[in-house]
Amino acid sequence: MGTLRDLQYALQEKIEELRQRDALIDELELELDQKDELIQKLQNELDKYRSVIKPATQQVHKASALQEQHRTKRQAISGEPTAFDIHELSHVTLPFYPKSPQSKGLIKEAILDNDFMKNLELSQIQEIVDCMYPVEYATDSCIIKEGDVGSLVYVMEDGKVEVTKESMKLCTMGPGKVFGELAILYNCTRTATVKTLTNVKLWAIDRQCFQTIMMRTGLIKHAEYMEFLKSVPTFQGLSEEILSKLADVMEETHYGDGEYIIRQGARGDTFFIISKGKVNVTREDSSNDMPVYLRGLGKGDWFGEKALQGQTQETECNAVLL
């Protein structure tokens, strides 16, 4: 059995251990509060993006409704005038800057790696790649200054930059990274400063060009979706307004060769219209459990319409390599 002095020493150790734990808990709680604040700020930024990146057609319908009611309202993206006529947009000539296959691949991968741009359609990404022009900065140059009004987004091809906010370093970035994307998604001031650490080579696109791409591809896609929907017997009795709303919520999905899109017997919740490629339709033979080929489908064909009525799939569909 220990002496009183030993017990007092052990008690002091426990008290000190508890004090350190309390201090650690206080520190972690403070860090948690800071992270909660950061999450809220990021959520606010995300809400801004979502308020801007809407299907272009939703803006078209809203603008048309307001014109009918003889009211005016500012555009969500910016105060700059925006054309809504698909025929006018179709004749807009976008700039084109030649690039090596390596540069094209780097820009595309950078966009697909960016949280706010990776969900763009491949056709939109391709136009963005074509429209980007080269920019170079020397070492210790300021590319973006916090608080300035921005209108360009950049993709780094060569070099290294440092990102700071309120004079505090956030990170460094190298080739294959997108920065400044907030400027083309939302008309606001720069949220951070970007300075070069070396000589850098960049590719840039301005907000007006980006918005033209988004608006044009959105309207073209909407027109295509409307034609598809009108060709589906199930929807031929629906009004233009309802068809237009259906077209607004349609999403483009990609499948690889041989990949199953729907399976026989599964309860579906998705209706498909083929925009590109071919699909094989099969039904399982109950006698030998082997799939029996029924027909092939191509661009403009549809399947899975019974899923909208909550019915199970009677056949299987899988993608076919062209």
How would you explain this protein's 3D organization?
The chain has 322 residues and is of the alpha+beta class. Helices cover 40% and strands 21% of the residues. It is built from 8 helices and 14 strands. The strands form 4 sheets. Strands 1-8-3-6 form a 4-stranded antiparallel β-sheet. Strands 2-7-4-5 form a 4-stranded antiparallel β-sheet, with no helix packed on it. Strand 4 and strand 5 form a beta hairpin. The chain is extended, with a radius of gyration of 28 Å. Mean pLDDT is 79; it is low at 50-84. Residues 116-231, 234-308 form the Cyclic nucleotide-binding domain. This is Protein kinase cGMP-dependent 1.
Summarize the structure.
The chain is of the alpha+beta class and 322 residues long.
